[in-house]
């Protein structure tokens, strides 16, 4: 990145005046890894059971799946199912199976995990249904700008066109790319980190549903960056070496 000198650094208004969209390098296509990363960083938009599943619940589900496999290998798949569904006692060993003496440990853990998953899901599903019922009655606030093509963090390249369904400042994507010397990949990376940080704050009206949350986050973040003329907080953090490696990264 070029040093920020008085000569090179111009205000956004200047940029708009002397840069035409056609002169800026186009954003390259999105690789599968980048696609997954964008989906992963967008997960905080969810509400209810989806929110729980993508933020914490997936850990429970992964632990459950791991224990299920261990028990299936030790005691057989039918028995693993019976233990997880609390049909069989974790201290039972099916006839004809030679299991190690400690096989009750993973079996007990599986039966506890099974109980947590079943009761947890039942509660979450109930909450989800209540939330959806109230949301549908209220209708969608953001419908004036049209439906979102997807509820995920949008690509900067897509924000350049008028049909993205988001409310962002004029030339926002182009200017943000220019702040990164037209490096669209780095700009997209920083844009996703910033939106993910906003999604982390929980300062949203989640009653509007997932799309509503993402709509608010995109609008807040883009106008926030619009106000910081010529700066990207992620670039500054990378420069000062204070980049953290938390859930957003
Ligand atoms: Zn940046
Ligand atoms: Zn981070």
- Termini separation (Å)? 21 Å
Shape type: elongated
Mean pLDDT: 76
| Count of individual beta strands | 0
InterPro entries: DUF6313
Keywords: Membrane, Transmembrane, Transmembrane helix
Transmembrane segments: 51-70, 107-131
Pfam families: DUF6313
How would you describe this structure to a colleague?
This protein has helices spanning 12-18, 32-41, 48-75, 77-84, 104-138, 156-159, 172-178, 184-200, 209-227, 233-240. It is mainly α and 249 residues long. The protein folds into two domains: 8-42 and 151-249, no CATH class; 47-143. The relative contact order is 0.14. Mean pLDDT is 76; it is low at 1-9, 136-144 and 243-249. It binds zinc ion (ZN) (2 copies). Residues 244-246, 248-249 line the site of one zinc ion.
Question: What are the main properties of this structure?
Answer:
249 residues; 10 helices; 57% helix; binds zinc ion; 2 domains
Secondary-structure map with pairings?
Elements: H1 12-18, H2 32-41, H3 48-75, H4 77-84, H5 104-138, H6 156-159, H7 172-178, H8 184-200, H9 209-227, H10 233-240
The site of one zinc ion (ZN) has 5 residues, from helix 10.
Keywords: Membrane, Transmembrane, Transmembrane helix
InterPro entries: DUF6313
Transmembrane segments: 51-70, 107-131
């Amino acid at each position: 990145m070029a040093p920020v000198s008085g000569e090179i650094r111009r205000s956004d208004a200047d940029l708009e005046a002397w840069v035409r969209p056609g002169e800026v390098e186009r954003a390259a296509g999105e690789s599968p890894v980048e696609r997954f990363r964008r989906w992963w960083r967008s997960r905080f938009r969810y509400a209810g059971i989806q929110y729980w599943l993508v933020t914490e619940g997936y850990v429970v589900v992964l632990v459950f799946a791991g224990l299920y496999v261990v028990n299936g290998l030790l005691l057989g798949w039918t028995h693993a199912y019976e233990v997880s569904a609390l049909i069989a006692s974790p201290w039972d060993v099916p006839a004809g199976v030679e299991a190690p003496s400690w096989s009750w440990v993973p079996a007990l853990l599986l039966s506890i995990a099974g109980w947590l998953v079943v009761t947890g899901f039942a509660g979450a599903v109930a909450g989800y249904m209540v939330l959806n019922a109230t949301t549908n009655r209220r209708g969608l606030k953001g419908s004036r700008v049209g439906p979102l093509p997807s509820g995920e963090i949008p690509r900067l390249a897509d924000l350049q066109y008028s049909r993205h369904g988001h409310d962002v400042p004029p030339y926002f994507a182009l200017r943000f790319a220019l702040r990164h010397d037209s490096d669209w990949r780095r700009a997209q990376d920083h844009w996703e980190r910033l939106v993910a940080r906003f999604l982390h704050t929980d300062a949203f009206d989640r009653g509007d549903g997932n799309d509503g949350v993402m709509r608010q986050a995109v609008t807040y973040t883009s106008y926030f960056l619009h106000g910081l003329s010529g700066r990207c907080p992620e670039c500054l953090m990378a420069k000062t070496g204070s980049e953290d490696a938390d859930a957003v990264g």
